[in-house]
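sry for the spam today, last one i promise. struct tokens for design, 389 residues
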């Protein structure tokens, strides 16, 4: 009898200890996620405020504003990489995207050829990351590093590289992390920032899908679960304008709008179909970076970057025939080649005929969905940041 009683008491104690451990992990995870997100938001804001030097002979205000927008987005891509492909841009590796100059042109002397100016900083930022990765993996070339670096937990690995390379208030961001916050769960030699359960964190620079669809549903084929045009328009209105594009120089604003929103407010946006007649898919809005923990079950049920889900930064993200400036004679100057154009919204064919087109709602980065198909809401215990959302 005494043995049975002892067994029962031991079981009760084990259950109590297990609950206490889970609560402790929850508390630690929330503190970690909030701390890292606060630092990332500050870093993002600082880098967003960088301004590029402008040639004195640029007279066209539209060219100035559009070039600044493209420069800022690509600078944020370079300095806050979300995946391997972000670092790969301009590397010279076979299949990687070339970084062409920002769309300002200058003359060395009157009458001489026009050359591209102010494009080195973005290329150098990516190059510094590539060199750090090569040192981490102890390989001599980027091609070898690209081969050895697996994409399984690339966002958490990029997050580590950002924190290892950045400072705030004169202090390295890496000092915020303890030994237990760093691991290599996939064994590829690249450190990851992990939560208290040892699961790599999810880092998203522009989680547009989360803002547009942050509710999990049992059956995505049920049309009644899809957000309406009116709901999406309300979400975008609440998010506010894109702070990088207050003058609305994004090329998508040149497309025709559907101003009859009132008459289509009850229409459903099919997340599986590209519908360019819906006005909400032609607008930009404020998107802030996000770092998320999967919680105790280790499952996100969020769309992450990678083939077949959220679109990576790939070689066809280019926009051609971009207006560069007006010269002194009033002639319009355009860039000789396409300009790299990271697109956080994935809603229009902005990047030419070779692009893969708009992304359905369920394929946009951060969208809440039944990713693993088990009909269980594994996003329910995700730990999101408190600040900024």
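last one done:
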């Amino acid at each position: 009898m005494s043995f049975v009683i002892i067994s029962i008491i031991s079981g009760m104690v084990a259950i109590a200890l297990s609950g206490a451990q889970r609560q402790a992990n929850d508390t630690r995870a929330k503190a970690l996620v909030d701390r890292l997100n606060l630092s990332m938001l500050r870093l993002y804001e600082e880098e967003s405020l960088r301004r590029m030097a402008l040639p004195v002979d640029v007279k066209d205000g539209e060219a100035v504003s559009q070039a600044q927008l493209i420069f800022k987005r690509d600078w944020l891509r370079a300095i806050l990489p979300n995946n391997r492909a972000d670092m790969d841009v301009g590397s010279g590796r076979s299949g990687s995207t070339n970084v062409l100059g920002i769309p300002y042109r200058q003359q060395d002397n009157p009458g001489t050829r026009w050359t591209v100016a102010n494009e080195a900083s973005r290329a150098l930022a990516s190059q510094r990351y590539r060199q750090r990765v090569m040192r981490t993996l102890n390989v001599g070339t980027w091609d070898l590093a690209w081969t050895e670096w697996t994409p399984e937990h690339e966002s958490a690995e990029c997050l580590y590289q950002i924190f290892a390379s950045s400072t705030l208030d004169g202090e390295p961001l890496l000092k915020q992390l303890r030994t237990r916050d760093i691991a290599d769960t996939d064994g590829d030699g690249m450190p990851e920032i992990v939560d208290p359960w040892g699961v790599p964190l999810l880092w998203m620079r522009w989680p547009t899908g989360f803002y547009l669809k942050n509710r999990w549903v049992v059956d995505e084929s049920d049309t009644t679960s899809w957000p309406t045009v009116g709901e999406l328009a309300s979400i975008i209105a609440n998010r506010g304008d894109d702070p990088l594009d207050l003058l609305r120089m994004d090329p998508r604003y040149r497309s025709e709008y559907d101003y009859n929103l009132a008459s289509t407010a009850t229409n459903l946006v099919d997340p599986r179909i590209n519908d360019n007649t819906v006005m909400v898919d032609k607008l930009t809005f404020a998107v802030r970076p996000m770092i998320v923990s999967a919680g105790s079950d280790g499952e996100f049920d969020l769309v992450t970057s990678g083939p077949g889900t959220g679109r990576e930064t790939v070689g066809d993200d280019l926009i051609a025939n971009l207006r560069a400036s007006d010269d002194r004679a009033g002639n319009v100057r355009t860039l000789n080649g396409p300009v790299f154009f990271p697109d956080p919204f994935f809603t229009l064919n902005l990047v030419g005929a070779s692009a893969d087109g708009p992304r359905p709602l369920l394929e946009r980065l951060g969208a809440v969905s039944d990713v693993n198909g088990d009909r269980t809401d594994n996003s329910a215990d995700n730990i999101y940041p408190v600040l900024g959302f």
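The mean pLDDT is 77. ok im logging off now
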